[in-house]
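User: What would this chain look like folded?
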Amino acid sequence: MSRPVRKQATRAALAVLLVAGAIAGVPATAAASTGAATGPLAAAACPTAAPPANLNPWRETDYALRTAPVRMGPYGECRSVGSYSAGQAVTVNCYTTNSHGNTWSYIRGYGWIWDDHLRYRGANNRCIF
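Assistant: Here's the prediction, encoded as structure tokens.
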């Protein structure tokens, strides 16, 4: 399955879960829409290990759609280390999918950016750890 199709399928699955939760009377949270981890998972889900450069040599340019925070790990609850302004070029190396099914691209030497904040949906190569 190609990456854009896989991302669309992931978003469709998330939409189904949100609708099912609404029908069951469970409120949708910002965590579902932002890729944030909540509760005890939040601290454990913020890995600080960077994908090794020798295994992930790729470089692609994407652009921030809006103010895009860069985080220590691939979750919205991970500590912010900076941000890109709308329209600013972002050089991404590879991506990973967090436990919520959200994809995040790695910016070598800086951190992780949620692909929903990027015009072209981030890196095309999965990170190798």
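The radius of gyration is 15 Å. If you want, I can go into more detail on any region.
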